[in-house]
Amino acid sequence: MTAEPPFRGDAVTHGPNSPAIGFVGKLFLSVLVGDSVDLTDRARRWSLWNWPPFLLVVTLAAASLVAAPDGPARQFLWVHLALGLSVALVLVRLVLPVRKGRPHWRVLMSATALIGSLTAVVGMDHLADHGELDVTGRSRIGGGPFTDGSSAGLVVDSPADRARLRLTLTVRDADRATQFCAPETRYSAQLRGVTSTRVEDVRGGQTIGFPLGGLQGPIHVEITLRTDEGCWMNLSVTRAVLHD
């Protein structure tokens, strides 16, 4: 009696140790996207296949957070939102019971979580190269107190890794008990040796900016104080930020 040929499209294997290619392929897809194919009822119940998407997203999220540069917290908001959404989706997908009629939603959740985590990694890498760098803690003004016409030197002890420096200074009376000169005090500032960057008539608390133009090494800013005669003032760095 001649055996009937298999139906078209069925996987055919011969021998006791032959691999079932179709089964292995579906198993591989199930590991990556989790229940995107109907493997067998037993494979669908194996919670092991639901863990790889979760572990992959968590690993990408951890890598993104580890690579985070210094800088204002507000610039990382969208990255943190993407990470939070990705981890939440993949966690819900992990604990969600497997039921018939739901595999497409599980695939969509896994894909969205993966895209979100990859976006966060790329975004964090972009911020590391082009995001704002808070260098306030590496900025200092030598000397003081200062009087009218005094010159002060501000040093940002950081490589000029961005195109511009944004700077805010605080001007205070050296002796608040005997004088009240801060409201009328002004200063001018420029990058050392670059008169084209000079800004005039700046109040304490006002933000100014300087184009760095490929400057290498620490950044030096020359400051000249303008205040009433007999007033003595203290200068301090409120905030210094490098940015593109």
Note the gap between the termini. Answer: 81 Å
Class derived from helix and strand content: alpha+beta
As laid out across the biggest beta sheet, the strand order is 2-3-8-5-6
- Low-confidence stretches are 7-13, 31-46
Number of strands: 9
Tell me the helix content.
Answer: 25-40%
Number of helices: 5
Shape: elongated
Radius of gyration: 31 Å
Strand content: 15-25%
Kindly state the mean pLDDT as a whole number? 77
Please trace the helix and strand order, writing H or E for each element.
HHHHHEEEEEEEEE
Summarize the structure.
The chain contains five helices and nine strands, in the order H-H-H-H-H-E-E-E-E-E-E-E-E-E. It is an alpha+beta fold and 244 residues long.
Write the layout of secondary structure elements.
Blueprint: H1 21-33, H2 41-45, H3 51-66, H4 77-95, H5 103-130, E1 133-134, E2 139-141, E3 151-156, E4 164-173, E5 186-191, E6 199-202, E7 207-211, E8 219-226, E9 233-243
Antiparallel strand pairs: 1-9, 2-3, 3-8, 4-7, 4-9, 5-6, 5-8
Tell me about this structure.
The chain is of the alpha+beta class and 244 residues long. The protein is built from five helices and nine strands, in the order αααααβββββββββ. It has a five-stranded antiparallel β-sheet, with no helix packed on it. Strands 1-9-4-7 form a four-stranded antiparallel β-sheet, with no helix packed on it. Helix 3 runs antiparallel to helix 4, helix 3 packs parallel to helix 5 and helix 4 runs antiparallel to helix 5. About 9% of the residues have low confidence.
